[in-house]
Design a protein that fits this description.
With 404 residues, this protein is of the alpha/beta class. It has 2 domains: 264 residues, Type I PLP-dependent aspartate aminotransferase-like (Major domain) (Aspartate Aminotransferase, domain 2, 3-Layer(aba) Sandwich); 134 residues, Aspartate Aminotransferase, domain 1. Helices cover 39% and strands 13% of the residues. The protein is built from 15 helices and 11 strands. Strand 5, helix 8 and strand 6 form a beta-alpha-beta unit. Helix 6 runs parallel beside helix 7. The structure holds pyridoxal-5'-phosphate (PLP). Pyridoxal-5'-phosphate binds next to helix 4 and helix 5.
Length: 404
């Protein structure tokens, strides 16, 4: 019997009902924190067999540990796919995802040749592409992933082997059509990596829509409480999953058991939190729409959003917990003054926490771009980005209105 997503988020990965070790009088309902760097067996032969099996067999914790495996198991369960790798940060998950996505069929060495990436990516992701990949001779081209004609012509011209996009982009909250782009990419045998951090598995499951790897900063919604840094990727195919696993074991961006425990615990309430955060965000976006101090409320749930229909279809009627506000004044001074007047929303980078957070992209995620470069990607000087928390929507709204 297949349970619904909400149920699987609560149960998957932990307390196996079937397959608990024979002879155990009990099974813990909550996966313990296995703080052990290594694992021993009764005999050298059994240890030899564990090394031979590889994969999930326990031998040394850089290769995996039971607490981290429980997080990987719940992610595979809810996203589908052949394997997951939990890592020490979202960035290491994305780096590993890009390496593994470039694995040629029939080979086991990851080496992407040409990456076609969205021009609207998380700042550090753009930097990884420009420094770690482009600097080593990998072709890197950026394009607007919301313009399918542009994506198609870039694919035709460049024949990339990897595409990288965000399901919902930061901070402009553009929505990419994952199935259409995956279809185009597969025509030339390219693999698609989707950073689904902002959408979460509650809004969409990229693998089911055709993508090859779904990657998350688990720091954000998956953990949800602002108390841990972590990442996870889920791969659809066995070759990509095995490559990602092998490279993680080799380089060691492995997630530690304490962090894995916090994230697994967060995942259990993900559906509840998202439910509330999406409802709060919609209510606040609608209430602020038309406010005299605001030029534009950017939220996929508003009909004025350019990909409103796509978002409604792709995200099953939810629109996420992020809202960006373009202030009418359009200046850095106005944005900073508004941020300083907020009493409830915390002025801190990151997103997806239970607390409402506010950031000003020019001093955080887009700090390294000058004003003109920011305007070229559509980020005005008066843009504030809110990650709406689980507080009472009226309290959050009142806080924003008094600050405006
Ligand atoms: C935060 C974030 C990352 C990076 O994740 P870390 O856990 O900070 O390494 C990548 N992509 C998106 C969309 C993010 O929001």
């Amino acid at each position: 019997m297949t349970h619904h997503l909400t149920t699987r988020l609560v149960h998957a990965g932990e307390h196996p009902r079937a397959g608990a070790p024979a002879g155990n009088a009990y099974t813990p309902t909550s996966m313990p924190i296995h703080a052990s760097s290594t694992f021993f067996y009764n005999t050298a032969e059994e240890l030899d067999a564990a090394f031979e099996r590889g994969g999930d067999a326990m031998n040394y914790a850089r290769h995996g540990n039971p607490t981290t495996n429980a997080l990987e198991a719940v992610m595979v369960d809810i996203e589908g796919g052949r394997g997951a790798v939990a890592t020490a940060s979202g960035m290491s998950a994305l780096y590993l995802a890009l390496l593994a996505a470039g694995t040629p069929r029939g080979a086991t060495e990851p080496h992407p040749r040409h990456i076609l990436a969205s021009s609207d990516l998380y700042g550090a992701t753009t930097k990884i592409l420009k420094t770690m990949f482009a600097a080593q001779g990998v072709g890197v081209t950026f394009c607007d992933m919301t313009r399918l004609d542009e994506v198609q012509s870039k694919i035709d011209a460049l024949e990339p082997d990897v595409l990288l996009l965000e399901a919902i982009s930061n901070p402009l909250l553009k929505v990419a059509d994952i199935s259409a782009i995956s279809q185009m990419a597969h025509e030339v045998d390219a693999r698609v990596v989707v950073d689904a951090t902002m959408a979460t598995p509650v809004l969409c499951q990229p693998l089911a829509l055709g993508a090859d790897i779904s990657a998350h900063s688990a720091t954000k919604y998956l953990a949800g409480h602002g108390d841990v840094i972590g990442g996870v990727l889920v791969a659809k195919g066995g070759l990509v999953a095995d490559t990602a696993h092998a490279y993680a074991a080799l380089i060691g961006p492995t997630l530690g058991p304490f962090e894995a425990k916090l994230i697994t615990r967060g995942v259990k309430t993900l559906a509840l939190r998202m439910e509330r955060q999406c409802a709060n965000a919609l209510k606040i976006a609608q209430a602020l729409n038309g406010h005299s101090a605001i030029k534009q409320v950017i939220y996929p749930g508003l009909p004025s959003h350019p990909q409103h229909a796509l978002a409604a279809r792709q995200f099953g009627g939810k629109s996420g917990g992020m809202i960006s506000l373009e202030l009418a004044a359009g200046t850095r001074e106005a944005a900073i003054a508004c941020m300083n007047k907020l009493k409830l929303a915390l002025p801190a980078t990151s997103l997806g926490d239970i607390y409402t957070l506010v950031t000003y992209p020019p001093i955080s995620s887009h700090r390294e771009l000058d004003a003109e470069q920011r305007r070229n990607v559509g980020i005005g000087d008066g843009l504030l980005r809110f990650s709406i928390g689980i507080e009472d929507a009226d309290d959050i709204l009142a806080d924003i209105v008094q600050a405006l």
